[in-house]
Amino acid sequence: MPVVKFIEFDGTEHEVDADNGASVMEVAMKYDIPGIDADCGGGAVCGTCHCFVEEAAGPLPDMDPQEEAMLGLRPDRESNSRLSCQLTVSDSIGDLIVRLPEFQM
Ligand code: FES
Ligand 1, closest atom to CA 49? Predict the structure, then answer.
């Protein structure tokens, strides 16, 4: 079972066990991690589940055009930005360290 460490903007860390097949957003919701709003419920149309993947044990899947388009609307986008609703926990990705933005917009 992969472990996801969420780091809030203020540095508060939350390390949780994540189910394979769940999105990183769903893991955050399950454990009430502050900093991810997920207004569209995972449809990749709101961009309020933005996160920064600081470390991953394995390679991340490529972004699809919808994720790329939504992240393109984020002025705080960085090279490691992802929509957490589009990133699925799996043994092939393994453990993750995910930093959260100051606020979702
Ligand atoms: Fe809306 Fe991810 S929850 S884009």
Answer: 2
pLDDT tens sequence across 64-85? 999 999 999 999 999 999 999 9
How far, in Å, is the centroid of ligand 1 from the Cα of 45? 6
Mutate which of 23, 36, 37, 45 for ligand 1 pocket (most atoms within 8 A of beta carbon) = 45
DSSP string, 30-70: HTT-TT---TTSSSSSS-TTEEEEEEESSPPPPPPHHHHHH
User: What Cα–Cα distance (Å) separates residue 98 from each residue in 24, 26, 31?
Assistant: 9, 13, 14
- The set of residues, in sequence order, having a beta carbon less than 8 Å from that of 41 and lying 6+ positions away, is none
pTM of the model: 0.96
| C-alpha 81 – ligand 1 centre gap (Å) | 13
